[in-house]
Here is the input.
Amino acid sequence: MKVLILPNPFKNALSAEAAGLAMKEGILAYDPHAQVEMIPMADGGDGSLKLLMEPFGADLMISNVLDPLGRTINAQWGLNLETRTAVIELAEASGIRLLNSNERDPFKAHTFGTGELINEAIAKGAQTIYLAVGGSATLDGGFGILKALGTDFLDELGHNVVVRKLTDLRLVAALNFDRLKRNLNQVNIKVLVDVENTLCGNEGAVRIYGPQKGVQPNQLQTFEEIIQHWGYLLTIASNQNIFELEGGGASGGVPAAMAACHPQVTLHSGASFLIELANISKKILDVDFVLTCEGEIDNQTSYGKGPGVIAKLAHDHKVACIGLCGQLGDDYNPKKSSFYAVFPINKKLLSSTLAMERTSHNLRYLAGQIYGLIQLKPPKVGDEGIT
Here is the structure.
């Protein structure tokens, strides 16, 4: 039997590669002769930099930039000087993984450090930049990046406004991209977006992703109003309707800001881009079933997340795709899903810390179980149990 494993990372627990290896080991424990191919995946979020470095022949670079709260950190990125191509992962400079849970402050968190990485890439000769967004700690609408790239924020009288935090955007009446466009002259930026959500509304950046970045329920309307004002400024400055931009709400609105600031910025589905890069569509046609995984599979998985895109592709090819996850969201609807089946890997209730520690073990066990079930054969090895 042929199996294709296309894992995404388990945030704070396992990399995509480690998760995939665990599932592969579980299958081979059942059947040492199984034909298993494992290709780590990402969707523009965590892990995208590592997956893109080799295909683009990029060398690892390290730069001093600001983290979401303005502290100096070392952030990694990739550069192929020969092709003048750079790879930047937003989460390296502005990721939620850089903050402790008690440090999350969406009023203060910004993406300025990601803008610094873009400036660094341009200074070293990059003319094409792949910016993978996802996993951010921010809900700044991308103003931090635009500030770093040279945007002028103006009040109603045309005077410059100092913008340091989200609420400062209320003082801004207009944006001037002239300096930014000079800085980005002859530079193409391809933004790899990890979700399809728009900037505002019930499926927008604030209401869907605000809570995980620290927005309290009684603050949602305040954030929504500020981001709506920001969207209006971007729309006027760019002469395009930023509110309708698919994927504009990713990473707290970063793609919306990037699409507005320069005509040489384009948005792309991160998952689709990486799937095409690895020729996954052809590989799916040659297997009996597909296994994918992520920390949580829920309703949002179908909004451009890697496992959701993989499941849809497999479904279209009439190949079963099974999803494994640390947690199955309450809003997951199997009737509207492209997954053949989805299974949480934890058998019993555990603390989040213990569950993350057991991720590899549980993935290994459950992948083997699923393989055995599909073969309708009993296991050939002892059952070491699932936690």
